[in-house]
Design a protein that fits this description.
5-stranded parallel sheet; 16 helices; 13 strands; binds ligand SAJ
Length: about 425
């Protein structure tokens, strides 16, 4: 069985993966270019929030199965889990993948396995990784094994999903895929399906694009809802009672480092052929401005000028502390462009992450002429509006996370994105 693993990139995916192997008795060395991240891991301080991560990290470090530094060490397996973001012009930035691969080249030896976990455009293993790995002098596929094993876990439930989700493993040779399967069987209880590297790359990007296109469909319908005089949330709920229908939900935009990013990989590769994908990206990207305009329309209707907007929720989705590509921050930008003042609060985001943040929820409630809920955090769902000490009783729910009846009973004027009844 495997003796040692070097995990390059200790972020949202690399760290939980490293910890998971370490908790299963595998010797793991984690590498990150950020010395602060390395130091915090060595000291068992988390730089990211994830259910169950702290306990597992403590165990891994205390038992001596997890070490960390800023440079790779000689191992039997190398797992690359680094960011693969998009550039300002929406093209893929594969520089981190290339650099991480280059960093392990001096260490790889005959019989080693290199696995890419990052989500990447199809052909990245072939066109970006392999040209670096050949510099080791080893024959790829027979002396050095290479595969793509994309992570498929959802932030907030990473550990549960790491174990239970099926995994797609694409090897550049059959042996590469088989060795990777064997490795992940250390903790994966889901099925592990084998294919080639490019198919695995496409599958992963397809999954997130499916979600993006489906959400764009819901957002388009939400925009139409007012003209149609319907509540789109109710309509979607009814449509989803059909056994073969699964319409996703509208909102103030699509955020995170995956769903708002990966479809651009296909747009770049597909060009003219990627029409639905491209349009969906643009539709979802139009939602923050739609949300801001609707906020202003509500204020105008109430005759409130020079207003202060209370934006509740800065994270890109409910119950996580992650602000990457968060639509909330774009909604805030759009509100400010409209000349509105914004104060914000998020129970999951530490102070001073955004210039509009107040010290407490109470401070924001006391200043806001309208309460706009942008993230469906549990803390917001559980609010009791009857007990809130507010300046204004106008609320705009963009995630259908509040109970209209309860809020109206507490005297609030209630507005819901995608609902004609306002
Ligand atoms: N959103 C909507 N409407 C919906 C669902 C989501 O507006 O009906 C928004 C969310 O609010 C958020 C964004 O979309 O801003 C993305 O959230 P998400 O929960 O759909 O996805 P992520 O980015 O947290 O995780 C996804 C997952 N992919 C799929 O479900 C196909 C996860 O399994 C992947 O591992 C992850 O991307 C990744 O790393 O690629």
């Amino acid at each position: 069985m495997t003796k040692s693993i070097c995990v390059v990139g200790l972020g949202y995916i690399g760290l939980p993966t490293a910890v998971m192997f370490a908790n299963h008795g595998v010797k793991v060395h984690g590498v990150d270019v950020n010395p602060a991240a390395v130091k915090s891991i060595q000291e068992k301080q988390l730089h990211i929030e994830e259910n169950g991560l702290q306990e597992r990290l403590n165990k891994a470090v205390d038992e001596g199965f997890l070490t960390a530094s800023t440079t790779p060490v000689t191992s039997d397996v190398y797992i690359v889990a680094v960011p693969s973001p998009i550039n300002p012009d929406n093209t893929a930035n594969l520089e981190y993948v290339r650099q991480a691969t280059a960093s392990i080249v001096p260490f790889v030896k005959k019989g080693d396995l290199v696995i890419l976990e990052s989500t990447v455009p199809p052909k990245t293993v072939e066109n970006v990784m392999l040209p670096e790995l050949v510099k080791s002098g080893l024959e790829i596929g027979t002396e050095l094994f290479v595969s793509h094993s994309p992570e498929r876990v959802i932030p907030g439930r990473i550990f549960e999903e790491l174990v239970n989700n099926d995994r797609i493993v694409g090897g550049i040779s059959q042996k590469s895929a088989e060795l990777t399967k064997e490795l992940y069987e250390t903790f994966v209880k889901g099925e592990i399906h084998l294919t080639d590297a490019t198919t695995a790359e496409l599958v992963k990007v397809m999954e997130n694009t499916y979600r993006d296109v489906n959400i764009a469909f819901a957002n388009e319908l939400a925009k139409m809802a007012e003209k149609l005089d319907v509540n789109i949330w109710e309509a979607i709920k009814f449509a989803n009672y059909h056994p073969r229908v699964n319409v996703h939900f509208p909102g103030p935009g699509v955020g995170g480092h995956c769903i708002a990013v990966d479809p651009w990989f296909l747009v770049e590769l597909g060009g003219e052929q990627a029409q639905i994908i491209h349009l969906s990206r643009n539709t979802n990207d139009s939602m923050p401005s739609f949300t801001a305009q609707k906020t202003q329309a509500i204020l105008n209707k109430n005759g409130i000028a020079g207003a202060t907007v209370g934006a509740f929720g800065l994270a890109f989705k409910g119950n996580v502390d992650d602000m990457r590509e968060s639509p909330s921050t774009i909604v805030i930008d759009e509100l400010q462009k409209l000349g509105l003042t914004v104060v914000s609060h998020d129970p999951h985001i530490k102070q001073n992450k955004h210039e509009t943040q107040t010290q407490s929820m109470q401070e924001a409630l006391e200043q806001a002429d309208i309460l706009v809920f942008l993230t469906d955090h549990k803390e917001f769902r559980e609010l009791d509006p009857a007990t809130l000490n507010v300046k204004s009783k106008i609320v705009f729910d963009t995630k259908n996370c509040l109970n209209r009846e309860v809020w109206e009973k507490a005297g609030f004027q209630f507005h819901l994105l995608g609902d004609a009844k306002n």
